[in-house]
Amino acid sequence: MLETENYDCPYCGEPGEAVLDLTGGDQQYIEDCAVCC
Q: In the chain, what are the domain boundaries?
């Protein structure tokens, strides 16, 4: 089951979106901001 989660960059405030796989158990995802990083 996939779910979309919206978030804001903690440094510049640019909105972003991530697709999460809720069936994958505990996960961690890190992505650089396309605007400021």
A: 1-37
Q: What is the pTM of this model?
A: 0.64
- On whether the CB atoms of residues 5 and 17 are closer than 8 A, the answer is yes
pLDDT single digits (tens) 1-37? 899 999 999 999 999 999 999 898 888 888 899 899 8
Alpha-carbon distance of 16 to 21, in angstroms, equals 17
2-35 burial, b at 16+ Cβ within 10 Å, e below that, comes to eeeeeeebeeeeeeeeeeeeeeeeeeeeeeeeee
